[in-house]
Structures
1.
Amino acid sequence: MPRRVAILGSTGTIGRQALDVIARLPDRLEVTALAARRSASLLAEQAVRFRPGRIAIGDAARADELRARLAGKWSGEILTGTEGIAEIAGSGGADVVVNALVGTAGLEPSLAALRAGSDLALANKESLVIAGELLRKEADRANARILPIDSEHSGLMQCLAGGRSPDAIERVILTASGGPFRTRAIESLSSVLPAEALRHPTWTMGPRITVDSATLLNKGFEIHEARWLFDLPHDRIDVWIHPQSIVHAIVEFADGSMIAQLSAPDMRLPIQLALCGPDRLATGLPRCDLTQSAPLAFEPVDPRRYPCLAVAREALDAGGTVPAELNAADEVLVEAFLDGRIRFTAIAEHLARIVRDAPRGSADGITEILRADRRARERARSLAGGS
């Protein structure tokens, strides 16, 4: 029987790529539910093509538009609001739930999917950043898996396949392209324009994650993810700059040997592996020809150029609700930068202050996490207003 797949955030970049993977494997995968936050027109097109039994749109004001577009073309159930998206995630009707939502909005659906016993294919990194311990406990209780949908953690999962003993692992290495400012004069970073920060050299992504890649905070969040996905202390998770984005992850073992995962920079590969692994299926995805690629280069991270990486480690070391504050503040500050209200370098400056001053509270429940999220947003707005 095909694996039943629900996709949250189906109209975004990752959601569309997941549907492309499913379309290539009709005998292995089928869509049971789709959810989007705002795009009624594209969600309607997806519903007509993939015929899920249920769909949800987070913006309830767009429900009438969605119904009108689907009249006479599709007859499934339409749910609305954040409750509708959570219902899609937690109904138990999917073998695997792909969570490609953006931001803190992805947390409750992640929890709902795991509590229903579905595997969680996770592109919503915020879930693990702000509530990694909570999600890990829910997954263990329900005997469900958290499967990474990003190139670096998928690469680590592949390198660590076979149940390597933790004592055998010296460290793991996540790679980063370095973003658009890898070689720009550090003194000029304060004058970076939003349009410049949105020109990622390798990947096509949404605005926030693209800016986070320019500051390298995205890689800091990936350190948080790796800590919870693979049960590793963060001092054994390293980051290297690798501009070619061909090597996605490296594991160094105690004897000094290394295993690396290489592939073309195409997100459909980790998506396909999350949905169909451990099977390796030929579906026509781009291949990596090392004889034709540029020489593979690696560089250490310059902390002066990328101060956000140290801020992310500080938040992870503090634990509790501090990572939730880091994530929420970043969301506000990136928006302020894109709107032209703060300088590019002010993102790191304000994040460092917020993490330093954040209360060291417990993250045992979603109430505490969301309270910290709101507190950090208020502080970030205040700091952005004064920049």
Note: The chain has a mean pLDDT of 93.
2.
Amino acid sequence: MTEPVRLDARPHGAALVRPLAKALVLAALGGVLVELGRTHWLALAVAGAVSLALGALVGLRAVLRWDRTRLVVTSARLLVVYGVVRRRTATVEIGPGAPLEIDQSLLGRLLGYGTVSAGDLHVPYVPDARRLSG
């Protein structure tokens, strides 16, 4: 018997804000160091290039992790499928006796995301989390 799917989504885009901000800071620092290295020391330009590369890697890693994460909520289970190279699945049964808890901050309510918890499994940045409470 197949269970009706209540939600099948990837994390809300808000999950990318912190890691992409870190990537942007690294890239900006790298740009400044490269520019300083043009007129001062070559070592600054090399450090700037390394910082730019790190910023790109941090951003790419964040987007890949976000894109390869799926949340599926059925009438009986909460599943999180994640991983880029190695795919993993975490499952929690949410039958009639097991509560599905939704936690939303003020920003989460404004942007339309929340944290869904069932048992020991806590999934942040779930889009449209309020529709699961019904």
Note: DSSP finds three helices and seven strands in the chain.
